[in-house]
Inverse folding.
C-alpha cells in the first residue's frame, strides 16, 4: 500500500512546487517594486531547487541555491541599490508595448501547449535508464569530464574573456571617453 502511496505524494509535492514556481515567477514580472521582484525571483530559485531534490539531483540543488539564489541575487540587489530608481523610472508604458507583450506571451503559450500535446511521456522508458546515482556528483562529474570536456573548457574560456572584458570596460583612465 505504501508503495503506491509514495508516488502520489511525490506527484502532489511536484504539483504544489510547480504552482508555487509559476506563481512566484509571475509575481517577479508583475511586481512594481524592483526589490520585491528580486525577492520573488529568489523564491522561484528555491522552488526550482525543490524540483531538483525530487529528481534526485542534490548537487544541482546546492549549486542552484549557492550560485543563483546567493551570488546572482546579491549582485542584482547591489545594482538596484546603486541606481536612483526615482530618476530612471519611465512615466508609463504605451498601449502598443502592452499589446506587443500580450501577443508575444499568447504566442509562447500556444507554442508551449502545442509542444506539450505532441510530446509523449512514456514512464517505462524513463525508468529503464534511471539508477539511484543518476543525479549525484560522481556520475555528473564523470559525464561532464568524459563526454563533455570540450564544451566545458570552451565555456570556462568564455567566462574568463567576459570577466576580462568587464574589468577593461569598468576601468577608466582620466580623460578617457566612454564607449
Amino acid at each position: 500500500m505504501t508503495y503506491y502511496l509514495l508516488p502520489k505524494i511525490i506527484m502532489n509535492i511536484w504539483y504544489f512546487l510547480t504552482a508555487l514556481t509559476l506563481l512566484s515567477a509571475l509575481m517577479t514580472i508583475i511586481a512594481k517594486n524592483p526589490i520585491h521582484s528580486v525577492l520573488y525571483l529568489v523564491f522561484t530559485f528555491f522552488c526550482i531547487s525543490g524540483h531538483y531534490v525530487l529528481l534526485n539531483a542534490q548537487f544541482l540543488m546546492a549549486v542552484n541555491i549557492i550560485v543563483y539564489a546567493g551570488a546572482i541575487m546579491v549582485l542584482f540587489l547591489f545594482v538596484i541599490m546603486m541606481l536612483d530608481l526615482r530618476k530612471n523610472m519611465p512615466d508609463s508604458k504605451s498601449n502598443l508595448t502592452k499589446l506587443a507583450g500580450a501577443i508575444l506571451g499568447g504566442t509562447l503559450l500556444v507554442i508551449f501547449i502545442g509542444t506539450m500535446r505532441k510530446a509523449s511521456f512514456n514512464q517505462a522508458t524513463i525508468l529503464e535508464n534511471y539508477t539511484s546515482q543518476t543525479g549525484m556528483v560522481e556520475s555528473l562529474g564523470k559525464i561532464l569530464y568524459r563526454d563533455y570536456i570540450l564544451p566545458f573548457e570552451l565555456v570556462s574560456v568564455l567566462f574568463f574573456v567576459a570577466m576580462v572584458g568587464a574589468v577593461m570596460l569598468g576601468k577608466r583612465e582620466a580623460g578617457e571617453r566612454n564607449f
Summary: The CA atoms of residues 112 and 118 lie 10 Å apart.
